[in-house]
Amino acid sequence: MACRFLTPLLLLFAAAAAAAATFDSVPTTAFDEGYTPLFGDNNVVKSPDGRNVDLVLNRWSGSGFISSDLYHHGFFSASIKLPSDYTAGVVVAFYTSNGDIFEKTHDELDFEFLGNIRGRQWRIQTNVYGNGSTSRGREERYLLPFDPTEEAHRYSILWTAENIIFYIDEIPIREVLRSDAMGGDYPSKPMSLYATIWDGSTWATEGGKYKADYKYAPFVSEFSNLVLRGCRTSPLQEYPSAGGCAESDADLAAAEFSAMTPAKRAAMRRFRERYMTYSFCYDVQRYPITFPDCDVVPSEQEKFSRSGDVKVRLERIGRIRRRSNRRSRAPKRAVDGRQAQV
């Protein structure tokens, strides 16, 4: 159930939806034209028209699909509807990676959705790895300003030679700028696009406290509006020639989703201030030296503890405000000539 305290940003998302032509105009790809099942073949269920696909997790298997090609830079997007009810231990992922090819020096850009017990929200995290930098994970976690199980929302990753942008619907929630100081930690090798659903009971929900319960199975994640836009390349080309992707890179740069306007930056700042629950940039216990690509914002930083976690849990704020709203709507009666709450 969506929290009442999330309403202000819902208006922001509604405004973004009104300008959805930015994303809706991007051509989508039929499943068989751009993807192939990765595992759990019987749990990869295509729609009759081949435009949509459901990924299913049951007691026998999870499932996933992968792009048929690798891409050196690109825009990768899908509308995703997450499973409802009890989903503890369930992990849905939408990400780019080349780990199957470069096992020790892989690059990766992640959206991961972490299920929860009944009555609690799904959580989302993003991460960036470059050149095998798994010991220096650039992880961030967020709550969502809507119920992702009621209807599909669009999740997108833009990856260029200069920056990386994570989008939810038309709102950018995170930008990573390439810098010399970041060095090889910036993803640079061709990657495939993946989507998966699987059992992460050992860690996904409160560090493994709550496990997947298959009496609520099957867990179904719906994918639609699939987008693959970028420079297709061969897995043998670790670093494609600049000329080989010049036209595709120019096409990406000219697209409206690549432009970080002042309005987009303001929307991103509002989202992060309200819904980010962890940032590696503020985790001084794990990373005493701040990463060179961190954009430390004092007003944002003061909300986080030394562990990088937000000091006041947003879910608790939501419960407090809902109780306050219920009290404000309670009927009243007169007591000694004064109005008092029943």
Q: Strand sequence of the main sheet, in spatial order?
A: 1-4-13-6-7-8-9-15-16
CATH topology category name: Jelly Rolls
Give average pLDDT, whole number: 86
The N- to C-terminal Cα distance equals: 27 Å
Keywords: Apoplast, Cell wall, Cell wall biogenesis/degradation, Disulfide bond, Glycosidase, Hydrolase, Secreted, Signal, Transferase
Region (Disordered): 321-342
Subcellular location: Secreted, Cell wall; Secreted, Extracellular space, Apoplast
Function: Catalyzes xyloglucan endohydrolysis (XEH) and/or endotransglycosylation (XET). Cleaves and religates xyloglucan polymers, an essential constituent of the primary cell wall, and thereby participates in cell wall construction of growing tissues.
Describe the overall structure.
This is Xyloglucan endotransglucosylase/hydrolase. Catalyzes xyloglucan endohydrolysis (XEH) and/or endotransglycosylation (XET). Cleaves and religates xyloglucan polymers, an essential constituent of the primary cell wall, and thereby participates in cell wall construction of growing tissues. InterPro entries: Beta-glucanase-like, Beta-glucanase/XTH, ConA-like_dom_sf, XET_C, XTH. With 342 residues, the chain is of the alpha+beta class. It has a single domain, classed as Sandwich (Jelly Rolls). Helices cover 18% and strands 34% of the residues. A hairpin with an 8-residue loop joins strand 7 and strand 8. The N terminus and C terminus are likely disordered.
